[in-house]
Amino acid sequence: MLKAEDYLVGETAWCPGCGNFSIRNALASALSELELSPHEVLICSGIGQAAKTPHYIRANGFNGLHGRALPPALGSRAANKNLKVIVASGDGDSYGEGGNHFIHNIRRNPNLAHLIHNNQVYGLTKGQASPTSEQGMITGVQVNGVAAPALNPLAMGLVLGAGFVARCFSGEKEHLKETIKAAINFEGYALVDILQPCVSFNKVNTWGWYKQRVYFPEIKDPQDWPAAMEMSRQWGEKIPLGIFYNHPRPIFESSLPALEGEPLASRPFDPASMSRVQDEFL
Amino acid sequence: MLKAEDYLVGETAWCPGCGNFSIRNALASALSELELSPHEVLICSGIGQAAKTPHYIRANGFNGLHGRALPPALGSRAANKNLKVIVASGDGDSYGEGGNHFIHNIRRNPNLAHLIHNNQVYGLTKGQASPTSEQGMITGVQVNGVAAPALNPLAMGLVLGAGFVARCFSGEKEHLKETIKAAINFEGYALVDILQPCVSFNKVNTWGWYKQRVYFPEIKDPQDWPAAMEMSRQWGEKIPLGIFYNHPRPIFESSLPALEGEPLASRPFDPASMSRVQDEFL
Amino acid sequence: MEVNILVGGAAGQGMDTVMNLLGKALTREGYGLIYTKDYMSRVRGGHNFSRLRIAAGKPWSNVETFDILVALNEETYYLHHDNLAPSGRVIYDPRLFDLPDDETRGVSVELENLAEEAGGKVMANTVAVGALLVLIGLPGTAVEELLKETFADKEGVAEENILALKAGMDAASRFCSSCFPLPSKSEGGKKLFIDGNQVLGMAALASGCRFLSAYPMTPSTGVMNYLAGKMKDYPIVVEQAEDEIAAVNMALGASYTGARSLTCTSGGGFSLMVEGLSLAGMTETPLVIILAMRPGPATGLPTRTEQGDLEFAIHGGHGEFPRAVLAATSHEDAFYRLNKAFELADRYQIPVLFLSDQNFADTHRTVEQYDFSRLNYNRCLAEEGQYEEPYKRYRFTESGVSPRALPGQFADQVVLVDSDEHDENGNIIEGAQARRLMVDKRMRKLTALAEEMDEPDLYGDPHPDTLLIGWGSTYGVLREAVDALSASGAKTAMLHFSDIWPLPRKRLNSLLPEVKLSCCVENNVTGQLASIIRRETGHLINRSILKYDGRPLLAHEIIAEVEKNAES
Amino acid sequence: MEVNILVGGAAGQGMDTVMNLLGKALTREGYGLIYTKDYMSRVRGGHNFSRLRIAAGKPWSNVETFDILVALNEETYYLHHDNLAPSGRVIYDPRLFDLPDDETRGVSVELENLAEEAGGKVMANTVAVGALLVLIGLPGTAVEELLKETFADKEGVAEENILALKAGMDAASRFCSSCFPLPSKSEGGKKLFIDGNQVLGMAALASGCRFLSAYPMTPSTGVMNYLAGKMKDYPIVVEQAEDEIAAVNMALGASYTGARSLTCTSGGGFSLMVEGLSLAGMTETPLVIILAMRPGPATGLPTRTEQGDLEFAIHGGHGEFPRAVLAATSHEDAFYRLNKAFELADRYQIPVLFLSDQNFADTHRTVEQYDFSRLNYNRCLAEEGQYEEPYKRYRFTESGVSPRALPGQFADQVVLVDSDEHDENGNIIEGAQARRLMVDKRMRKLTALAEEMDEPDLYGDPHPDTLLIGWGSTYGVLREAVDALSASGAKTAMLHFSDIWPLPRKRLNSLLPEVKLSCCVENNVTGQLASIIRRETGHLINRSILKYDGRPLLAHEIIAEVEKNAES
Lengths: 282, 282, 568, 568
Ligand SMILES: Cc1ncc(C[n+]2csc(CCOP(=O)(O)OP(=O)(O)O)c2C)c(N)n1
Ligand SMILES: Cc1ncc(C[n+]2csc(CCOP(=O)(O)OP(=O)(O)O)c2C)c(N)n1
Ligand code: SF4
Ligand code: SF4
Ligand SMILES: [Mg+2]
Ligand SMILES: [Mg+2]
Fold this sequence. Notes:
The complex is a heterotetramer, with two copies of chain A and two copies of chain C. By secondary structure, chain A is an alpha/beta fold. Chain A has a single domain (4-279), classed as Thiamin diphosphate (ThDP)-binding fold, Pyr/PP domains (Rossmann fold, 3-Layer(aba) Sandwich), CATH 3.40.50.970. In chain A, 27% of the residues lie in helices and 16% in strands. Chain A has helices at residues 20-33, 70-79, 91-97, 99-108, 153-159, 173-185, 207-213, 225-232; strands at residues 41-45, 60-63, 84-90, 112-118, 164-169, 190-195, 214-215, 239-240, 242-246. In chain A, the strands form two sheets. In chain A, strands 2-1-3-4-6-5-9 form a seven-stranded mixed sheet, sandwiched between helices. Chain A has a two-stranded parallel sheet with strand order 7-8. The radius of gyration of chain A is 20 Å and the shape is globular. By secondary structure, chain C is α/β, with parallel strands linked by helices. Chain C has four domains: 2-172, Pyruvate-ferredoxin Oxidoreductase, domain 3; 197-374, Rossmann fold (3-Layer(aba) Sandwich), CATH 3.40.50.970; 383-450, no CATH class; 457-567, Rossmann fold (3-Layer(aba) Sandwich), CATH 3.40.50.920. In chain C, helix 8 (221-228) links the parallel strand 8 and strand 9. In chain C, helix 7 packs across helix 8 (221-228). The radius of gyration of chain C is 26 Å and the shape is globular. The interface between A and C is large, with 57 and 74 residues. One thiamine diphosphate (TPP) sits between chains A (47-50, 66, 90-93, 117, 119, 121-125, 130) and D (215-217, 244, 268-269, 272, 299).
């Protein structure tokens, strides 16, 4: 069994004090505790600070285009259902540029864990508002303050039928690690929105700001949708953390006859054997 | 004052019996009753059967790209705030290809009415599933039946902060017309999802199917969000119609200092008068 | 001797049914034919029509004039009667409309009434088929067989249709029978009756394509329909994406993890895919994209044909990376060509664009059965022991092609691909030297790739005075034009490209200096191939014949243009 | 006589502050300079550096060797000391690291300590500026002035910074003072100190651009930042779009309804915009797109430079439609050139691509003040009485340009634009003839448009033996290369394109046959301009100097390559 440290590779390009470090560590610990070997795991990401994660965790990695972390993850589930697929990317990536894939992959429900490093800002491009930026936050582009209300990813997940909806905070490391483990083990699409301080650009939602507000509500029934909705809409003085909803439904892969048996990627093939397919045109 | 018929132009390319006709008529009547002249109105659409609407209503029209009805509508609100902007397009257009614009324009809250001709199918491309197709519906592409649950546009609208959320049925013409009028008059983004039979490709959600199910619930408080959420989630044996939520909030345009005064489009300008802007670089 | 038929009516009136029945029956009877569609971007109403040409050997293209007009509505008669041969015939339903008094070619068949008598109005098309059979002197047996196969599961339906068919035959035989004698049958056993999209779908399936993600878009949707239809019985996943961006990125994910992957679209969707194309180039992920062209810009003419996206296919996507562009020329070739596209994608770990267009996609022809043993499935993956440990996805090699492993293929080895510039391992780099090395590595692939390109097909006089140059779906019509021009004594040949990029130049360089007139024939307004030839070889093509009205080129148009030129 | 300075350190250490202060102060004092940035795609750490060159007249490009190195960390010293002149100096903080014993060029200044003493560590950069001032013999007054302006709202901060500045001056003066004498001042009054993105942003604002929708993407974001900063005081809306697709479509909506509209992006974002580009072509909606290039494919090197998207700019987007492609060559020209882009977009109702790159975008230079009266704002709209009723958006005209009205402009007239092929009114059509007419109408614009293109700038010997050809941001470096080559006696000239498409050909056609050596110099790996020249004129460019490591070309590299060629 590999230890958490064994999953850590590469020299990070993150700022000292960035919340990404804790998320990376939690992910490494989760993989270690789940006894997943690096070659069994695939991490997909888009572009951004968070999206550099595949370079910093020893595992297979698809570091694709900005906003496009989910589609290759979906494709990889079709081609090789044996891979544990984790999407680890930013809030801009997942909810901004990638918003349409967010909507429709929740509906599809592929078996993967989606970890959003939600620093409520565009980090890599130096501090513009992201879809989750607080209303009123002033940036170099939002000079009059962010006009639109912040997008609520958990509530969106719930109305779109996500079976696993959780909020974490990078500063609550144990909870984060356990939630990531649960998300990876969850059969279906698991949404984990992780509040993450960006020390360089988000001067509103700092570590202290989060720390003061987060709490762990008692979750009586993780299959109580209205309760989950209510919790996911709490934001402000008090911000609840936890797995608000946990209710599996049939996964994308189960609708595909081709996925019975060996993974598609490893099945042998001989074109010559196929000639009967032309009979229908005779 | 123009009569409803005066707004009808062009030879429609829709199938006889299509629900689009009623929507077109309701829109024409609404414009007439609101005493809006054709040149004061702009209809934006994408591509699809519904998206042909700008050709069939006498008004300004921007018949753009598939999925991209909302962005030009937003741009047009910035350039000319005097125009009454209506987006009239399909479910595939608005919730499929255009999903990301749907999300983020709800958040922006521009002053426009978004009418979705929701036939729960891709009409123009001959019958593939749309995001709102019923789970299990069989098509030429979804040969094993639609696997994902249908997207619920109203619930999405609600969690994203839409201030006006309504469901109509093309077969309930008076209600449809009145709702369109209310949507056009609403100060902000108004979402009107209109159930519309597609006689050629949707053999599940037919006129009769809808007719049997739709009803008008009593809406006690159109500002009761949880109640609106509950109504918008009702689907199946009973499908409620009505303006489930009506709760204005500051509009996109109000956050823009440039929009005070004359519309941007009509302000005169002389570049030579601008030379002071270079002073900051001296 | 040949017979040409045009069936026209409103969308939804079922021209397809008529043509499919008749085409398949004729194919089974051993005739060579081509069937093309002209249809509007709507579901009901408007005016659509289809042409069927039955000719000796195998006809390569359709012609403008015809012998039999099936006018399913009055408009059809007025729109088309000018091109009906003087000796031709019009099948029409006298209950729907009357022909003008001076029209002597009418074959009035009460299509709807007879259908209703047979069991239902919907069978009016079957009645029309019956009438057609009589006019061309084909016995009903083949069609009856087909009806039985088609409606095998639906009790009584085949029988009713056979009644309708016979009613049509009876009705028409009162006017004329076998008045349009069929040409000689084609040789060489049973043929396929198949359209271009089906050819490509079948080729993909038989090439071991395991994953198609696409978003519906005319005229590419047929490929998706074909493959979706195979999901129940074959190891393939077809996923309708939420948009074309998702489509191309899903396909890249599936390819990266090991499935031969495909996406298909038309111009507008391709526009949305070019960022993913660029990603394929950067990550060196094999991918085949079928780009079925239609007239642009923007939505353009959704159901029409054009060859307007060639330069876009070559230059689309930001940054510089190797790619191949191949095209569907004929039903005969495209089957093997698409297999080649998959092979090239895997061998060079590059994206391969496969250009089709509405003209190719929607055209049915009779073709020889395909030889599936000519297809390949070489994934070119690193085998155990064929890579150095630790595995590095982008290891530098002389050819520029790195040993490719799949995620999970080797215990303890991981595969990292990256959209940023990267080192051999796939990790982000920023250094100037590292960048240069990686660009050079990718670009080195072009040397061997260029060698793989087939020279354009040379057909006609080996030392021509006039050289017609084309690419893609104009193959057939150019061939017929060359035949006709040659028959009238002009030394004519054609050079036709199926592999377009990297542009094969040998034949161009040897032929162009020799010919008196070089002429690019293209279905676009700017003459894109001619520009590319000049760019790559310096040769200025003398003349271009360009058609950009959304309709396919016809042989007589090309011939007239060439002859006009010869005169001047 | 010139002075070259390199400041290096980790991202976040504030090289920008040093350079901006110094650069602006020098500009105010009347010196000509250029300041370029080399930075990584990260926010903290790594290694970034900036170069500042102060030279007589106005320097056009930077050079590799320098006189003063400000090493904000140890790594910087080791990475760069090789290129420090033997007589050079290294400013460093001895509390952070030591120089090697044999390094005699050290100017040790306790940057952080002195800053802390003055009021805070953050002012370490101000201390460094002080040290620099001493070395180049510039009095502190100009910087002090600047500090006062910058911190006008923040009580006490300016004073503290002035203390820090003086501490730096004192510390450095112990080593050497005025040991790098400054060149002569440039002539002609007060100059601007401005970077490329600011030039474009200001040009847009002063061209009456009223709407910018964009999605942040390096190196284009500076344009967005500039214009967003003006939202409070000028009639302009800047909207951050949810993605680049939204950005381009929003801009089209705003343009259609009457605002001069702009979007800006880099290659990946442009890939996502090309469908919208095609829509602009089809709907004939004026639009300017600034494409700030960076190395691709895919994410590539986000903060580096490349000229890799020229052919993509010309051919991107499906279907065929007229467009213009212009480029930023120098700060002097780009200001007026972008105005021309807006004018062309309005005059021809077409999309205009304006190519910039990281090298241009991030480079500050001192330039003459712009003459705003040279800018135009001609919207080319139909005035009352200048259109036929009913108004038809796509009325056929000889020029191909239809009278353009805005929605709501005329009572009872409506304006319909359509992504499908359409008739004069804007309504969907499908007919062959109607299609042909509308394609011809659009394409007719090209005739006049081509006439608008400026011939490439010819600089150097009017009858050169060697002709260097370039485009875009290489203007300055080519100019310096030509000067140097000419000075050494070689008959050299450059032909430099700012208007690229439709390609102006007169000068090419007259010069290329005369020169002994033609050489395209490009920041890409495939030599795109050379290909385009061959495509359009048939001329084969003899040689290409290509750099594709993400760094801008340097004059000495070009000179060496040209001389190597001259020898062989
Ligand atoms: C198509 C495209 N558009 C824009 C960019 C530029 N870009 C890179 S990362 C980023 C935002 C990142 O924000 P987020 O996803 O929240 O990640 P963070 O850096 O905050 O972790 C943007 C806009 C890009 N790479 N590609
Ligand atoms: C980029 C792009 N992709 C695909 C298409 C093809 N297309 C046209 S309409 C349509 C679906 C229309 O469905 P919907 O929006 O529900 O409209 P309906 O026809 O049902 O009214 C599609 C996929 C296109 N025109 N452009
Ligand atoms: S910019 Fe913000 S998110 Fe990015 S590494 Fe720095 S602290 Fe983290
Ligand atoms: S296909 Fe369906 S939606 Fe389209 S016009 Fe016909 S009935 Fe209406
Ligand atoms: Mg972020
Ligand atoms: Mg629909």
